[in-house]
Amino acid sequence: MKHRIPILLTSSAIAYDAGVTLKDTKERTRLTLESVREWLQMDPRPTIVLCDGSNFDFTALVAQNFPDATVECLHFENDQEQVRRNGRGYGEGEIVRYALNHSRLIAEAGCFAKCTAKLWVSNFQQCARQWNGRFLCKGVFLDAFSPFKKTRLAYIDTRFYMTSVDFYRDYFVDAHLRVSKQSQHGLEECFLETLLEKNIKKSLFTVMPVIAGVGGGTGTYYRNPFKRRIKEDLRLWLVRQQDAYQDLFVD
């Protein structure tokens, strides 16, 4: 079951959020196909659902580039005005909700691992081994190394998480409706609010997902040098030693 979790790639080939650096549709499309290629090279090869919220149909390109792959392509039109007003986090929430309502592969599996298009998780198999059948995500903690400040769970990294369909519908399907660009309240903060308000325990990875690829907001490749990974692993270890956060991490 751990290796049959569909990978949901949330895409917007056409950038409706004016705040992103990477706006060129051709380049965004190329990078999305690059991420599909990276996911398909992982062993065992995953099942992929590519859902685009700018009504861009990847079907022909996927068939041309990956003729033997299992990739379900979905597309629809995001609420453009809401995305412009509140940012790509709003659009992402709409994309996930559309995929839940229309993907055959996700419906059959009853779960999915969501990853923002143009990205992939290099240690996905390690993360998947922690799958609890419910919900798993990465928490971002600040001041873990500071002797003078209290460690703080700042937000949830929504670039990548794993969830069952039922759990997502129960807790996160409308989280994007609280996104507000004006208040600088993103989808990451909305997920954290839900996590705390609903007292959701045992939901944070105890391994750090290594996310690679290009961020649409910055237009540059993520760097994951060895020293940085060691630092993040140490940060995670320090946080897990604190009584206030122990119950949040998966067993």
What keyword list fits this structure?
single chain, alpha/beta, Spore Coat Polysaccharide Biosynthesis Protein SpsA, Chain A, two-stranded antiparallel ribbon, 8 strands, 35% helix, 19% strand
SSE arrangement:
Blueprint: E1 7-11, H1 25-40, E2 48-52, H2 59-65, E3 71-75, H3 80-86, H4 88-102, H5 104-109, E4 111-116, E5 119-121, H6 124-128, E6 135-142, E7 152-164, H7 165-171, H8 187-197, E8 211-213, H9 226-240
Parallel strand pairs: 1-2, 1-4, 2-3
Antiparallel strand pairs: 4-7, 5-8, 6-7
Helix pairs in contact: 3-4
Number of helices: 9
Distance between the termini: 18 Å
Strand content: 15-25%
Overall geometric form = globular
Can you count the beta strands?
8
Q: Which spans have pLDDT < 50 for at least 5 consecutive residues? A: none
* SSE succession: EHEHEHHHEEHEEHHEH
Indicate the percent of residues in helices.
25-40%
Radius of gyration: 17 Å
CATH architecture label name: Alpha-Beta Complex
CATH-defined topology: Spore Coat Polysaccharide Biosynthesis Protein SpsA, Chain A
Q: What would CATH call the class?
A: Alpha Beta
Side by side, the strands of the main sheet go 3-2-1-4-7-6
Main beta-sheet annotation: 6 strands, mixed
Total domain units: 1
- Summarize model confidence as the mean pLDDT: 94
User: What is the structural class?
Assistant: alpha/beta
Summarize the structure.
By secondary structure, the chain is α/β, with parallel strands linked by helices. It contains 9 helices and 8 strands.
Question: What would you note in describing this structure?
Answer:
The mean pLDDT is 94. The protein starts with 6 loop residues before the first strand and ends in an 11-residue tail after the last helix. Helix 3 packs across helix 4. It is of the alpha/beta class and 251 residues long. It has a six-stranded mixed sheet with strand order 3-2-1-4-7-6, sandwiched between helices. The chain has a two-stranded antiparallel ribbon with strand order 5-8. It has helices at 25-40, 59-65, 80-86, 88-102, 104-109, 124-128, 165-171, 187-197, 226-240, and strands at 7-11, 48-52, 71-75, 111-116, 119-121, 135-142, 152-164, 211-213. The protein has a single domain, classed as Spore Coat Polysaccharide Biosynthesis Protein SpsA, Chain A, CATH 3.90.550. The longest helix has 16 residues, at 25-40.
